[in-house]
């Protein structure tokens, strides 16, 4: 038996897209040995209604933990419950998402189980000696293969690295009690601060439009916003320089010290392409760069470049994208 | 308030990295090194806390070869009171082994707060902080972008995707520090002179055999970039055509 346990992330009473990605990733490992995928989800009462989605994406069993104290994610309760289940179930591997929640959760579970883990991996597979995973390192300038020889092998999967794939399985629901009382958690969420609504998150958006100093002034960022609006499914990012100048919040920063994104399309507006920035977006499928300086390093990684002033090119692009969308 | 900050010495990320002859790791010979970015923020935050409270001690801890003492001296010159060097030939890639060695050292230190950077710039994993918290049985708060502590209690803001949460937790606790919280100060000349006389204790790290190895390191496939399709707004129709027909993303 080589079953795989996967932690399916929820927030605000719903599954997150990364949960479906993680189940898809777990499926690839389980299928190697004819094992099962067991997905674990926690939430307030009612969360079980989302379990069926996990079944559609390849979960044989969905372990549902419902508790009135779990309306907000509690890393302590999740870690205790995931570790207890992992011990009991004798899993070959435990898969997490390398999201804000998962980056915090996975190492705790690994430590509870007394094993190392491979964090933020692009892919993983079973090999002769254990589980090997691909992980970008050194400011994303190299890709390293990490081999885990302990059992269970614990990995967290980079958001966007696996596209959620339909793979209908039984999705049999089993309810599970939390391994600790949520009321006894020491770290207590006092308040959730919601970001701008109506926009997909940077880590999940298929399109990211990002701006740099080439926009020359904070108010010109509205051109980037409008372009994102035209795509309809785009998030807005920025460079470190722009965040440091206070044009945009730090949470929008893409790069070595900010967020890492892997969208289908990345549009870099007025961004020169410093290593610091490239580290956060070079794994995008298609990169478009708009920059005045034709020598800017961003053009070396861009699939399509336009040399020109962002203030002139972006409004034209916004109009053209709007037209193209209408034509669909 | 007694604060430990765990720091790592890493290569300068602007470097051009070469792969070792056996293809397994990055060849770090001849590279310039410094304290990892986020660890610098953590040292700064720790110093600000003790300055604000008007009392306390900041102790910096680093695991690795003798060369990590440079990073420890830098933290001392920023204002940390003393340093602990956990000696090892190299830093294992197995973060659990590192966390075990740190926990063994920190366990009896009587620290109110143990701080880490969000992740080291070389391994980009961010597992050692939460693992150390777990091993010590302490509350853990990671990716902290704002931190307030008073006696016995902390309040922090954590950045999530597209949202943030404000959390409260009792001390002692472990926190990992995110970008944007504080800019590390430059050591003053006086600080650099003072650092030379500050205590730096060196002792062997208690390292278990590792169960996570780097078995291969590659440069990422080169992007087929560099294709400039035109200048100014006149190039927009061609760009849109390529996005539709070639890249198929529009």
Describe this structure in words.
- The complex is a heterodimer of chains A (328) and B (250).
- Chain A has 328 residues and is of the alpha/beta class.
- In chain A, helix 3 packs across helix 4 and helix 5 packs parallel to helix 9.
- In chain A, the strands form four sheets. In chain A, strands 7-11-6-1-4-5-12 form a seven-stranded parallel sheet, sandwiched between helices.
- The longest helix of chain A is centred in the C-terminal third of the chain and has 17 residues.
- Chain A folds into two domains: 181 residues, HUPs (Rossmann fold, 3-Layer(aba) Sandwich); 120 residues, TPP-binding domain (Rossmann fold, 3-Layer(aba) Sandwich), CATH 3.40.50.
- Chain A is 28% helix and 28% strand.
- In chain B, 26% of the residues lie in helices and 33% in strands.
- The model of chain B has no long low-confidence stretch (mean pLDDT 95).
- With 250 residues, chain B is α/β, with parallel strands linked by helices.
- The longest helix of chain B is centred in the N-terminal third of the chain and has 17 residues.
- In chain B, strand 3 and strand 4 form a beta hairpin.
- Chain B has one domain: HUPs (Rossmann fold, 3-Layer(aba) Sandwich), CATH 3.40.50.620.
- Chain B contains six helices and 15 strands.
- In chain B, the strands form three sheets. Chain B has a nine-stranded mixed sheet, sandwiched between helices. Chain B has a two-stranded antiparallel sheet with strand order 2-5. A two-stranded antiparallel ribbon of chain B has the order 3-4.
- At the A-B interface, helix 3, helix 4, strand 7, strand 9 and strand 10 of A face helix 3, helix 4, strand 9, strand 10 and strand 11 of B.
- Strand 10 of chain A pairs antiparallel with strand 14 of chain B, so a sheet runs across the interface.
């Amino acid at each position: 038996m080589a079953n795989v346990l996967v932690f399916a992330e929820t927030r605000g009473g719903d599954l997150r897209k990364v949960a479906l990605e993680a189940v898809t990733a777990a499926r690839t490992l389980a299928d190697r040995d004819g094992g099962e995928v067991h997905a674990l989800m926690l939430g307030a009462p009612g969360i079980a209604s989302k379990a069926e989605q996990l079944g559609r994406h390849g979960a044989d069993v969905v372990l549902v933990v419902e508790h009135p104290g779990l309306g907000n994610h509690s890393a302590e309760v999740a870690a205790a419950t995931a570790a207890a289940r992992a011990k009991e179930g004798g899993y070959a591997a435990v898969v997490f998402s390398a999201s804000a929640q998962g980056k915090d959760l996975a190492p705790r579970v690994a430590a509870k189980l007394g094993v190392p883990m491979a964090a933020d991996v692009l892919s993983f597979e079973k090999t002769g000696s254990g589980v090997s995973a691909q992980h970008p390192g050194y400011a994303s300038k190299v890709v390293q293969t990490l081999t885990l020889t302990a059992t269970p092998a614990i990995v967290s999967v980079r958001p966007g690295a696996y596209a959620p794939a339909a793979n209908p399985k039984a999705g049999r629901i089993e309810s599970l009690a939390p391994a600790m009382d949520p009321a006894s958690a020491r770290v207590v969420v006092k308040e959730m601060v919601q970001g701008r609504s109506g926009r997909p998150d940077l880590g999940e958006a298929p399109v990211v439009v990002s701006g740099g100093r080439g926009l020359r002034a904070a108010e010109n960022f509205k051109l980037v916003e409008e372009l994102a609006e035209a795509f309809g499914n785009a998030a807005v990012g920025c460079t470190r320089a722009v965040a440091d100048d206070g044009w945009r919040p730090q949470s929008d920063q893409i790069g070595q010290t900010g967020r890492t994104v892997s969208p289908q399309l990345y549009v870099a507006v007025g961004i020169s392409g410093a290593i610091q920035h490239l580290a956060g977006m070079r794994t995008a499928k298609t990169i478009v760069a708009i920059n005045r300086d034709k020598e800017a390093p961003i053009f070396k990684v861009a699939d399509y470049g336009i040399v020109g002033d962002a203030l002139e090119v972006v409004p034209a692009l916004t109009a053209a994208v709007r037209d193209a969308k209408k034509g669909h | 308030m007694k604060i430990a900050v765990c720091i790592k010495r890493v290569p300068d990320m602007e470097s051009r990295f070469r792969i070792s002859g056996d293809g397994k790791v990055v060849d770090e010979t001849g590279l310039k090194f410094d304290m990892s970015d986020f660890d610098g923020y953590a040292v700064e935050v720790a110093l600000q806390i003790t300055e604000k409270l008007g009392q306390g001690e900041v102790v910096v801890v680093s695991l690795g070869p003798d060369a990590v003492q440079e990073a420890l001296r830098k933290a001392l010159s920023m204002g940390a009171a003393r340093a602990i060097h956990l000696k090892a030939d190299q830093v294992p890639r197995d973060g659990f082994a590192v966390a075990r060695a740190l926990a063994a050292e920190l366990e009896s230190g009587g620290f109110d707060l143990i701080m880490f950077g969000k992740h080291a710039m070389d391994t980009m994993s961010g597992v050692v902080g939460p693992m150390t918290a777990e091993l010590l049985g302490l509350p853990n708060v990671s990716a902290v972008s704002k931190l307030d502590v008073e006696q016995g209690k902390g309040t922090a803001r954590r950045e999530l995707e597209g949202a943030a949460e404000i959390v409260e937790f009792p001390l002692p606790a472990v926190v990992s520090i995110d970008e944007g919280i504080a800019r590390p100060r430059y050591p003053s000349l006086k600080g650099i002179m003072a650092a030379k006389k500050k205590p730096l204790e060196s002792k062997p790290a208690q390292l278990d055999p590792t169960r996570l190895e780097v078995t291969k390191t590659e440069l990422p496939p080169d992007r087929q970039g560099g294709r400039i399709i035109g200048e100014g707004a006149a190039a927009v129709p061609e760009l849109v055509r390529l996005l539709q027909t070639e890249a198929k993303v529009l």
